[in-house]
Design a protein that fits this description.
The chain has a single domain, classed as Jelly Rolls (Sandwich), CATH 2.60.120.10. It is about 35% helix and about 30% strand. The chain starts with 6 loop residues before the first helix and ends in a 6-residue tail after the last helix. By secondary structure, it is an alpha+beta fold. A hairpin with a 2-residue loop joins strand 3 and strand 4. It is built from 4 helices and 6 strands, in the order ααββββββαα. Strands 1, 2, 3, 4, 5 and 6 form a 6-stranded antiparallel sheet that branches.
């Protein structure tokens, strides 16, 4: 039996994503309204290395393997996310994501993300600020 998540649960998962943590309730509500929950079977490829990036996904239930060149990089579970850079640049994916057993994911598509950015100009500024912070943390010795 498939279980669909409650609206508040969806918004809570979205709000945990570092690039959305500073969003105000209206922005988060709108993003949640444009976010789909998808149930997938074991072995379903959610993202394929080398293909154009077009979505962020958040694991709701089950687990998802992240692989690069056939090697396991990580195993993700509830609340973990992947593909966030695809919301911004639509560049080729640098890894694949595959369901390990039945899973459910939230999908924030590139177009839907940009809809929220155009409706809420402050949303774009918050996302860029969060991404800048993440980049800074990747390069702690880089000059500011």
């Amino acid at each position: 039996m498939l279980r669909f998540m409650a609206r508040d649960e969806k918004l809570e998962l979205l709000h945990r994503i570092p690039i959305f943590v500073s969003c105000n309730p209206k922005q988060l509500e709108r993003l949640g309204a444009l976010t789909d929950e998808v149930h997938v079977p074991d072995g379903k490829v959610l993202m394929r290395q080398g293909e154009t990036a077009d979505a962020l996904m958040i694991v709701v239930s089950g687990t998802v393997r992240i692989e690069r060149d056939g090697k396991l990089l990580a195993t993700l579970s509830r609340g973990d996310f992947f593909g966030e850079m695809g919301l911004l640049d639509e560049a080729p994916r640098n890894a694949s994501a595959i369901a390990s057993g039945p899973a459910s994911v939230l999908v924030v598509g590139h177009r839907e993300f940009h809809t929220v950015m155009s409706e809420f100009p402050g949303f774009a500024a918050e996302v860029l600020r969060a991404l800048a912070g993440r980049i800074r943390n990747l390069e702690p010795n880089a000059p500011n």
